[in-house]
Write a structure and sequence with these properties.
Layout (H helix, E strand, L loop, with lengths): L5 E7 L9 E5 L5 E8 L5 E11 L5 E4 L4 E6 L1 E8 L3 H10 L5 E2 L4 E4 L2 H9 L3 E8 L18
Length: 151
């Protein structure tokens, strides 16, 4: 007999949790959702049915209809690590192309993009492929995602 499919209509922000029941590991792209069936790391399926599309962060949690909390874990994914003598200049060029970027004191991380890769090499960046969780900076208006100017 199949177990019932629980649903989630509420998300708790990182740092506001007591105890979580399970985890769901999601890539950066998968953490942007409104309605989708997800499977926890322990194999339980549940329906996310939020009132609007949300950008979820590592440590946020879905509240299931029975009150259990399922924590969001940022999955490791293939990224490009960027270092160089002028990290501020490199970050400006990445941002000018509306590319999501994780900014750290000694490096930047972006998703693979061959055009951005080639541009960064031309302006003196040192690049290395890595596999890590991706948690880029939020948008300029405090939202979790940046969007292009396409309409």
């Amino acid at each position: 007999m199949n177990s019932p499919l629980y649903s989630c209509q509420k998300v708790h922000v990182q740092g506001t949790l007591a105890t979580t029941h399970d985890h769901v590991t999601l890539t950066y792209d998968d953490r942007f959702l409104r309605r989708k069936v997800l499977t926890t790391d322990a194999g339980e399926r549940f329906l996310v049915d939020l009132p609007q599309t949300m950008s979820l962060n590592h440590g946020d949690a879905f509240e299931l209809t029975d009150g259990r909390l399922v924590e969001v874990i940022a999955a490791s994914e293939a990224l490009l690590e960027i270092t160089g003598d002028n990290l501020t200049r490199l970050a400006w060029h990445i941002g000018n192309r509306h590319t999501p970027c994780q900014i750290e004191p000694t490096r930047l991380l972006i998703q693979h993009d061959h055009v951005i890769h080639d541009m960064l090499l031309k302006i003196g960046a040192t690049l290395r492929e890595v596999s890590e969780p991706f948690t880029p900076e939020g948008g300029a208006y405090g939202f979790g995602r940046t969007h292009s100017h396409a309409h």
